[in-house]
Design a protein that fits this description.
- There is one protein chain.
- Helix 1 runs antiparallel to helix 2 and helix 6 packs parallel to helix 15.
- With 482 residues, the chain is mostly helical.
- The protein is globular.
- The termini are far apart.
- The protein contains 23 helices and no strands.
């Protein structure tokens, strides 16, 4: 409890200190007060004295109650009714289609879990490719790749589906956390984490903050990013990284055991226990194929969020999941509140004029530098700043609109390419620290990768991923997205 109050004190202190400081030149006082509240919310998301969703809800409530998002001119207008407009603003995030798409995607993850389809896919790949350790690394990577387009929570996908399967493998070789971890366990755990970071960047629907980022890009830069555009834009970077990742880790962080027959036999045994494909697994497989097809090809006649709602309805009607399962899924409802409030708060930065002010200030500071150089530097800075965040969502909410505004203010900078690069970095930045993305604490907590190695590998692979994004991504996007 003492820790909670000390963290809460830091959050309040940040907001109060910023609020009492004089506003920067060119920024209205009410906009500065709103930014002070927003900064306090971001600190709260990092420290989490209370759950993140509660922090977002408290932030929206305070901003609406004090009318911080409204200008003095609006408040002085006799026709302006603060109570009505404040609650309308506070609840605006809950009418956002992207927020409900995120919720719907969590229901997909629930379907995978309830039917056992996700576990079956992982075991099947292990059975086919697990005779050699390197092959097993590719099996883990491919399992995540297959699940990624339909599972927007990499915590559910990797931490909840992949990790429980591969956690059973090292013990077959006498590899346990500690002195024997490097036999095979360390390699498998790091490969699984690195793979989910890459796949999280490959697909729009592979990471919940991706969907939030697309919404913020639309609001801030008036740029629409489709599922297909995202996929094609990251394709050469993703294919290269996925194809070489297990081998790169095999060379830089090699396992002591290179081959064996125990793993395929174990996977076959587990598959035998599962029996034949169940009715629910078949239905779930057909439903996710339907969803993916509509997300890719159905944009002209059905909204992506509506696709998710249709599939969820079919999941309930066919008995793949029960309504009680949906109601009791605390994680999904928690994310719904969290993202709805974060979308509202982040949009408030543009409403009060903070982003415009920042863009003008950044433009003045970067004047004279080549636009391409500025773009690369901003993307690299956006990536590195994630060392200070324990949540990709918090990073997106706090930093993405500001960086977008800075890039938009640079003459000649290709904003559409720049926006895509920022969005593409969200998944791969999860590799850099033990807390950078949802699955990171799961793999770090397994004990197979030491604290020292985790930080060193995070730095090395973070650099590899970032360089690949910039060296391959910039010229590729210049061709496919001029």
């Amino acid at each position: 409890m003492k820790s909670v109050w000390s963290k809460l004190a830091v959050v309040i202190l940040v907001g109060v200190v910023l609020a009492v400081l004089p506003p920067p030149a060119g920024l209205a006082p009410f906009a500065w007060y709103y930014f002070a509240l927003f900064a306090a919310v971001v600190v709260g998301l990092i420290l989490e004295p209370v759950p993140a969703a509660a922090i977002g809800l408290i932030g929206v409530t305070v901003a609406a109650t004090l009318g911080l998002v409204f200008s003095p001119q609006q408040l002085a207008d006799p026709k302006f009714t603060l109570p009505t407009e404040a609650v309308k603003w506070a609840l605006s995030g809950f009418s956002n289609g992207t927020v409900w798409l995120i919720f719907g995607a969590f229901m997909f993850a629930l379907g995978y879990e309830k039917t056992g389809l996700g576990k079956r896919i992982a075991l099947l790949l292990v059975k086919l490719l697990g005779r050699r350790t390197l092959g097993l690394g590719y099996a883990v990577t491919l399992a995540d790749l297959i699940l990624a387009p339909f599972t927007p929570s990499n915590t559910a996908r990797s931490g909840g589906t992949i990790f429980p399967v591969i956690r059973n493998i090292p013990g077959l070789y006498g590899s346990e956390p500690g002195e024997t971890s490097r036999k095979i366990g360390s390699y498998l755990m790091w490969t699984a984490l690195a793979a989910t970071c890459i796949t999280s960047s490959m697909f729009l629907t592979a990471l919940a903050p991706n969907l939030l980022a697309v919404e913020l890009v639309k609001k801030t830069a008036q740029i629409n990013i489709s599922w297909t555009q995202w996929f094609i834009g990251f394709l050469p970077v993703g294919v290269l990284l996925i194809a070489t990742l297990p081998l790169i880790i095999y060379k830089l962080y090699p396992p002591e055991i290179k081959s064996g027959t125990e793993v395929p036999a174990w996977a076959a045994q587990e598959l035998s226990k599962m029996g034949r494909l169940s009715r629910n697994e078949v239905i779930m497989g057909l439903l996710v194929i339907l969803a993916l097809a509509l997300w890719i090809f159905g944009g002209a006649f059905i909204d992506p969020t509506l696709v998710a709602l249709v599939v969820i309805s079919l999941m309930v009607l066919t008995g793949v999941v029960k309504w009680d399962d949906i109601v009791s899924n605390k994680a999904a409802w928690n994310v719904l509140v969290w993202f709805a409030t974060l979308v509202t708060l982040a949009g408030g930065l543009a409403t009060v004029g903070f982003i415009t002010w920042f863009a003008q200030s950044a433009s003045s500071a970067l004047t004279g530098m080549p636009a391409l150089v500025v773009m690369v530097l901003l993307v690299a800075l956006f990536f590195v700043i994630h060392y200070m965040f324990a949540s990709v969502t918090a990073h997106v909410t706090a930093i993405l609109p500001v960086f977008l505004a800075a890039g938009m203010a640079i003459p000649g900078l290709p904003v559409n390419i720049y926006a895509l690069l920022l969005c593409f970095s969200l998944g791969i930045m999860g590799i850099i620290t033990p807390y950078a993305t949802g699955p990171s604490p799961v793999y770090f907590g397994s004990g197979y990768v030491s604290r020292k190695h985790f930080w060193i590998l995070g730095l090395v692979f973070g650099a590899i991923f970032l360089v690949a994004l910039l060296v391959i991504g910039v010229p590729w996007l210049s061709v496919v997205n001029p």
